[in-house]
Amino acid sequence: MKRYTLLLITMLLLGFTVQGQGNPYYKGGFKIKFKDNDQKFIRFIAWSQFQVNMDDAPATTESLVNMQLRRARFLAYSQLADNFLIITHFGINSLNANNMQPTGASGTPQLFMHDAWAQYNVHKNHVIGGGLHYWNGLSRLNTQGTLNLLSMDNYRPAWSTLGLSDQFARHLGIFAKGSFGKFQYQVAVNEAITNTLDQRDAMVSQAVYQGRKMLGSRKAGKTYSGYFMYNFLETESNFLPYSVGTYLGDKKLFNVGAGFFSHPSGVVRLNDANELVAENVSHFALDVFYDHPIGRKGSSITAYGLAQHNDYGTNYNFGPYASGWMFYGHVGYLLPGNAEQMRYQPYVTFGNQTMDVDLLTKNNFGAGMNLFISGHNAKLTLEYQNATFNNITDHRLSLQAMIYL
User: Where in the sequence is the domain holding 144, given as residue range(s)?
Assistant: First the structure.
């Protein structure tokens, strides 16, 4: 408890001693224009997130306090013609003392490609593209950006395809996206990966995510996904796929969305005759997002709710992935102020996951505070997490520093 109190005091002291200010130099990132033409440019974005984590139930030989580089990323996109865009995004994730290498030449994590796709505007409001992309289906959380999260990180079970059918939530395939007035859509047909996180052998009573590996690409090689959203107030940008977590009062949004993900023959199991049987993977979700100024000048509220059903096949249960229902929500309140001052944003989160296997239930409760030194470009986040599963509760307190340009 003393350690938790120390981290809280540290954040409050930082809040009162660091001079907060807006960032007059950050006007949409570092952007190079060609021939002073707004239609021909290349833009660069770089960001880093460093964490100090305290866990009250580590292994007996592990320290209670550990540090990690949660993310270090670089993204560039270039438009060399009015209707043609190229996206490149690479970086590392979760670098810590246990996975660092002596010379940085091997091991995991290493620098790898997150996104690499090209897209073409077939119409003012409609785009097609292909490559390693992030135009996922299901929900906002399944396409969550990490530059402007409300909480410290995404609700992990919501990235429901990560490492099972894709490479770190990115598929290799083709997509289409666009809008009809306030209605927005994104759909994709993709390749499923062969080497999934789930390397278990086929079992009789439980499906494993080995469809493409065991059945081949002809039967289990493709996935299909989509997400559809209606904007009741202002229309949110869908220029890039990275969903915004909180707009800090800059938007008036109320959006309702629905999405799906399908992988025919994506999982396999053994029947009573010890024969390999294929099963389909099928997920669907409904979500609601609200972000709006409220009350005194500069204050705003951000709220999100998600209901999702995951069907990974018979009795599927592997790490954060399980067949069954999942519910998640969060609410944050940005305290009054203006862009030239430091801002505080307390928030709470709740997640519930009920698994078909023995009707087991996981609950996650979180409470935290964002300290915006220069909006999302420089911020500190302090968060407490309480996770309960099978009558075992784990407590964690984390402090994260983030900066992006």
Answer: 82-95+107-373
